[in-house]
Amino acid sequence: MLADTATLTRADDRSGKPRQPVLLAAEGLQKSYGPVQAVKELNLYLHAGEALALCGENGAGKSTIFKILAGEVIPDAGRMTVGGTEYRPVTASQAVASGVSMVHQEFNILPNISVAENMFLGRMEEFSRFGKVDWHKLYAAATALLKRLGINADPRAEMRRLSPSTQKMIELARALSTNPKVLLLDEITASLDHDDAETLHRLMDELRAQGVGIIYVSHRLQEIFRSCTTIEIMKDGAWVATRPASELDEDQLSALMVGRDLADWKRPARHVSSSQMLEVKGLSGPGFSDVSLSVRKGQIVTLAGLAGSGADEILEALFGARAVTSGEILLEGKAFSGTSIAEAIAAGIAMVPKERAVEGLIDTQPIRFNIGLAGLPKNARGPLVDGGREAAQANLGMDMFRIKARSSADLVRSLSGGNKQKVLLAKWFLTDPRLMLLNNPTRGVDIGVKFEIYDLMLKLSAEKNLAILLASEDMAEVIRLSDTVITIRHGRASGVFEGDAITETNLINAML
Ligand SMILES: Nc1ncnc2c1ncn2[C@@H]1O[C@H](COP(=O)(O)OP(=O)(O)OP(=O)(O)O)[C@@H](O)[C@H]1O
């Protein structure tokens, strides 16, 4: 029997502070996909003005819970209430009508229509008269909302013209346009640049002050402690613990999530060879200018910049995916004029891009097809793909990255977000590259796997002499991994740091 939610307070709240009433209650939630039990008997309570971080490893069931709460997935069992009223949405619009809105982990936009239409998607009848859209009214409403939220975008612009970060903020505006009582945010900052992430955290504070309840999923622990009041940890679809955020620190939270202590992880002592793999001299192109850098065999060099700094563009240019207007690239001392991705791959360069959904994976294909994709020539037998070899490679990748799936025949779209990212990493690591370009490789990956990826990068660079050029917005990651850090600001190198000079203060000063 579901508790009386108008008066219910958390069962495990021992802080002694008076609590707001429960806004959303879910009890005994269950959901299976075939033999996979994504959510097992889960209880969850969200209070007015609370920001609840839902934490757990990749595949723990967080997105599935969100989809249940947002009416996109119907649970096999369990009961929910919102504001004390029975809540059983079977469509997203029913959830919105009950005051529950969600921003998804993946992009959920229509690129070829305007920002304003994207903001009021599914509600255009509110701006129509006699079957015709009242554009003036629509743009006025969009302008007012964007202004109120502090989002800088032209409501008339075509959505695809916006940066991914602004597109995500438009999705947030869409969710907030319905004045939700409960807001669900799934890994939203993975797509946001620094300024938009700041705006989001400010908005979260304001919404909480207005009594909105927020459930927040992110693998960035710092953000959780910045904006969340309560932390709920789950593992393999089941509840593990609920704590006030003030009672935990990052190390304790990591330990609760992955079941082991990661606080004493140390980078092994390293010896880097003196032979150059990559030299870049005075490289300029759209988004970056006059960039010089070098990466030796077995070295990890990091481009550290705030999102939008130009680091992404530099990696893309080195992978032949972006035009270069001047400058020189040398690979092992020889000029490399790669103007296409195919040439870059043939030269032994691999790249893990930032936007896996757009650039990296074919969602509707099995894991093994996706892992095999980058190594297609190696897996070929004449004009055909050697299925046995492809499957063997996929199994190796699945083991290496602990990809959570039943088999390599599972479609990528059935995987959790973090496991998709692991497929992308496996795909490129297995091509045996000489130079690896990694753009925020641990985005969306849980803290346990993050450290496994670090170990793998350090191992491959030490044992196989793999040269790695990393771009990362995660300061702790930059400090843990880099032999050399080049800070990037406004498309230019603004500093070079090595050894003890790689400190958070030094890097941030050079990045800002
Ligand atoms: N449509 C689906 N079909 C089959 N299995 C699915 C489907 N959606 C999710 N799963 C499985 O359910 C489990 C939970 O996935 P979910 O996406 O909820 O995890 P998550 O905690 O959000 O992970 P992440 O941190 O990686 O985003 C995973 O094992 C996943 O493969």
Automatic annotation (TrEMBL):
Cross-referenced Pfam families: ABC_tran
Protein name (Swiss-Prot/TrEMBL): Sugar ABC transporter ATP-binding protein
Domain ABC transporter: 24-261, 272-512
Coiled-coil region list: none
Annotated signal peptide: none
Hydrolase in keyword set: no
CDD domains per the UniProt record, alphabetical: ABC_Carb_Monos_I (cd03216), ABC_Carb_Monos_II (cd03215)
Keyword annotations of the record: ATP-binding, Membrane, Nucleotide-binding, Repeat, Sugar transport, Transport
Family to which the UniProt record says this protein belongs: Belongs to the ABC transporter superfamily.
Domain of life of the organism encoding this protein: Bacteria
MF terms (GO), sorted A to Z: ATP binding; ATP hydrolysis activity
